[in-house]
Amino acid sequence: MAQEESRVTTGIVSDARAAHEAMCQATRDALTRRLAELFPEPVEMTLEIGCGHGHYLAAYSQAHPDELCVGIDLVSKRVKKGESKRDKRGLERLMFLKAEALEFLDALPVHVSLKRVFVLFPDPWPKKRHWKNRFVQQPLLDKLAARAQPGAMLYLRTDHAGYFDWMKEQVAVNPKWAARAEAPWPFEAPSFFQNLMDSWQSLPVERVAGK
Ligand SMILES: C[S@@+](CC[C@H](N)C(=O)[O-])C[C@H]1O[C@@H](n2cnc3c(N)ncnc32)[C@H](O)[C@@H]1O
Predict the structure, then answer these.
(1) What b/e sequence results for 8-33 when a residue is b if at least 16 CB atoms lie within 10 Å of its CB, and e otherwise?
(2) Which of 73, 85, 134, 163, when mutated, tests ligand 1's pocket best, judged by the most ligand atoms within 8 Å of its CB?
(3) Which residues are near ligand 1 (CB < 6 Å)?
(4) Catalytic hit among 66, 73, 87, 123
(5) Phi-psi map region of 52: left, alpha, beta (phi>0 left; psi -120 to 50 alpha)
(6) What is residue 124's DSSP assignment?
(7) How far is the CA of 66 from the centre of ligand 1 (A)?
(8) Which terminus of the chain is more exposed, N or C, with fewer CB under 10 A?
(9) What are the pLDDT tens digits along the chain (211 aa)?
(10) 2 C-alpha to ligand 1 centroid (Å)
(11) Is 165 a catalytic residue?
């Protein structure tokens, strides 16, 4: 009897897992189709990952009207706030999408090239057992490198000293990127989180050739 119950429970769990995986796959497929429609031709993009309410990217886009600027975030409400800034300011080359960073990079058409990428005040996940959740790590750096030409820049900024050291370590062990501490920050405007902080550290990083 106990064995029968355990077989039934195992069956329910594996059905739920399969349903969840099918749902995730459908989301990834929908994102791939949407990005193919949005970017049918080769194009260079300035990307902000984890753009929150879009404060930084809206200001950046206003100052760089010729650049295609895309902000992505996991949270729909934040994406909508970004869209409302875009609409109020009439920023025609700015868009915000709800997407997870790694899934977005997997789904991006191969002819899209990343020129500048911003990661501003990402969640620091301060506890050691949560460091695996930090998104500045090798899978992100590798997927960004696959879409970035030599000379493309990644701009990292955080208020969390431990995460800043982690970022430097992650960049140092990846042969496709090199820290350029001396490089200028290309455009200053406060993000939502920057407005809440007293201090922060920044790390410009360059996609290097031949790796
Ligand atoms: C601490 S907030 C910073 C927001 C904004 N960059 C700022 O400086 O105000 C981090 C943002 O990253 C988003 N985020 C976290 N993990 C993400 C992921 N894997 N892909 C896309 N966005 C993510 C969160 O939803 C959140 O809006």
Answers:
(1) eeeeeeeeeeeeeeeeeeeebeebee
(2) 73
(3) 49-52, 72-75, 78, 100-101, 120-123, 135, 191-194
(4) 123
(5) left
(6) -
(7) 25
(8) N
(9) 677 777 777 778 788 999 999 999 999 999 999 999 999 999 999 999 999 999 999 999 999 999 999 999 999 999 999 999 999 999 999 999 999 999 999 999 999 999 999 999 999 999 999 999 999 999 999 999 999 999 999 999 999 999 999 999 999 999 999 999 999 999 999 999 999 999 999 999 999 997 7
(10) 46
(11) no
Contact present, 144 and 114 (Cβ < 8 Å): yes
The two structure tokens encoding residue 209: 């050739």
Residue 113 amino acid letter: S
